[in-house]
Amino acid sequence: MNLASNSLKYGLQILIPLCLGGIILWWMYRDFDFSSAWEVMQSEMTWSWMLLSLIFGIMSHVIRGIRWKLTLAPLQEYPKTGNCIYAIFFSYAANLIIPRVGEVSRCGVLSKYDGTSFSKSLGTVVTERLIDMVCVLVLTGLAILLSAKTFSSFFDKTGTNLSSWEELLTSFNFWIIVLCTIGVCILVYFMLRRLSFFGKLKHAIKNVWEGILSLRRVRHFPLFIVYTIGIWLCYFLQFYVAMFCFPFTENLNVIAALLMFVVGSIAVVVPTPNGAGPWHFAIITMLTLFGVDRADAGIFALITHGIQTFLLILLGIYAMVVLPFSNNNNKTKAL
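-> structure tokens emitted (335 positions)
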């Protein structure tokens, strides 16, 4: 009975995000000509810019891995730098299967190959996510200051302007946002359920808490700040540079890119594989506000997200292959 219950729980954790993302993608692309996207990839797209975009994406993961090692040091945990980076690669690929499971799986990678305390490393991941939230809030505030009118237009277009309840309740875009909110609530529920396991073990709770507070004892805090800025700068450049791949987005300025990046970063909080669905919805809506044809906006979102997702899969496979070999010496010494 317990086995069946666990199978159902994990099945729902995979099925619900897929269904949520699938419904939103279906709505956004219900009248879309997919052959046009293929034509753009063959004849109009500048692949050198996309390659540079992907390099920035890889750099963001590498810097995150290096920063993670920095936060583990105050806890007397010293994993190999390579293992930290490969664990990040693996975690993003794992998130494509079950959203947010990567945060747990990367702790398992360090526990397996470096003997790092699982609960302590999990605490540092919680701290990371809080810092990411602060970064998004700061960027959101900056974007609003730079272009408040565009944000207002976005709320109007998505049906979230409260001045008209009738229009609000009949807007499908509004109901997409409602579905996304429900998805976030489900994510929080499963995370709390997962963390409730540690509530049974006082020692584990203490270790998690130590991990959360590890930031206070980071020896090179200025370096931690530099790494954090580097991570988010790479995230932004990955998105911004991708805009130069297409003739219909290459002329948009950096402010427009920042606005879309912020809205997209908020959208990926919704627990779907790599933000599929909510991210497309946010980016397509924003691009149309900046005068890009809706079909072209759909092409940009579809190709950019698809290639970035493929990169995560490749990095995850690479990490799975390299980790056992790069740690083979440790096993040999143990024997």
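The two ends are 40 Å apart (CA to CA).
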